[in-house]
Amino acid sequence: MSSTFRGVIPPVVTPLAEDRTFDRPSFNRNIERLIDAGVNGLFFLGSSGEVAFSTDERRDEIVKAAIEQVAGRVPVLVGCIDTETERVIEHARRAQKLGADAIVATAPFYALGGMAEVEQHFRLIHEAVDLPLFAYDIPVCVHAKLPVDMLVRLGKDGVLAGVKDSSGDDVSFRFLIQDNEDAGHPLQLLTGHEVVVDGAYLAGADGSVPGLANVNPEVYVRQWKAFQNDDWKGVREAQEEAARLMRIVMVTDGVSGFGAGVGAFKTAMKLLGVFESNQMPNPVAALEGDNVKAIEKVLKDVGML
Questions:
Q1: Active site: which residues (predicted)?
Q2: Fewest CB atoms within 10 Å of the CB: 84, 129, 249, 263?
Q3: Angle of helix 85-98 versus helix 115-128 axis, rounded to 10
């Protein structure tokens, strides 16, 4: 089953109306655009999907809408991200009931423990929910870097189906790819780094989970197809194009973190006519004024507007 989770699997951005209700029409429009572009799967309720900002009710609303709109055309991964194990299991059970194809979980991130507790966390989720489980390695948010040996061990034991790596540690990811191969490739390894996907493919990654694909899915699909055809010139050219577009997250002033990153994605998608609004969840403010103009300039410079 885990071998079906490869290629380009964007973490789908969650659109909000001006009153911060869930904007289902924009959500559906983006899903259709992504599937039409040829993505290989969709990941809902990741960091880009505002999982950390969403109530249980909102999470269910998003997952139900996603399953209904995707209608089995591509695999659906659902982020089940919360502070501690029992809360994650609750989310995972609901995702399974709603029809998810796989679940994604981080390490626990409130009552911090050691790696023994982190490993047990993943084992308990696997025991509780009969769906492929992906570990989401994002230490900047959860204050724990998932070790290579633990991930490979959990893969060999059938606990983990794969890893979504957003660690920022490309050396560790390279070693993970190598050790995973030596172990017989029990894990599907996906990079979440929009600007270095070419390097991940060169090392042997199984796919990418680029938030920027919400803005331009075609470039990442083209890159994946080039990789499958051993067209390394095409892989690099697509990466150069994506890297220039990724500057939308760097040209704003006075904002940082989620507001600059996902805020830029939403603003670009509004400028492209995909989203009706670039509204952000509380307490994050939507980009406006000169920041919108700066993003618009990047889109024009790369030929998207």
A1: 136, 164
A2: 84
A3: 30
CATH number for 7-231: choose from 3.20.20.70, 3.40.190.10, 2.60.40.1080, 3.40.50.10350: 3.20.20.70
C-beta of residue 71 within 8 angstroms of C-beta of residue 35: no
Comparing C-alpha atoms, which of 112, 110, 114, 159 is closest to residue 134?
Answer: 159
pLDDT at 1: 46
What letter does residue 184 receive in the DSSP assignment? T
Orientation angle between helical segments 148-156 and 115-128, nearest 10 degrees? 30
pLDDT value, residue 2: 52
Angle at 141 between CA 259 and CA 290, to 5 degrees: 10
> 24-35, pLDDT tens digit by residue?
999 999 999 999
Contacts of 29 (CB under 8 A, 6+ apart): 274, 275
Q: Residue 102: helix, strand or coil by DSSP? A: strand
The whole-angstrom separation of Cα 4 and Cα 41 is 9
Q: Do the beta carbons of residue 203 and residue 174 sit within 8 Å?
A: yes
Peptide bond into 283 cis (omega under 30): yes
pTM, 2 dp: 0.96
Cα(61)–Cα(16) distance, integer angstroms: 12
Q: Which residue positions in the chain have pLDDT lower than 70?
A: 1-3
Start-to-end Cα distance in the chain: 40
Catalytic residues: 136, 164
Bridge-based pairing state of the strands 102-105 and 133-137: parallel
215 is in an annotated binding site: no
The region, left, alpha or beta by phi > 0 then psi within -120 to 50, assigned to residue 7 is: left
CA pair distance 192, 262, nearest whole angstrom: 14
CA distance 262 to 294: 15
Tell me the residue type at 212: L
Q: Tokens 């572009």 — which residue?
A: 37
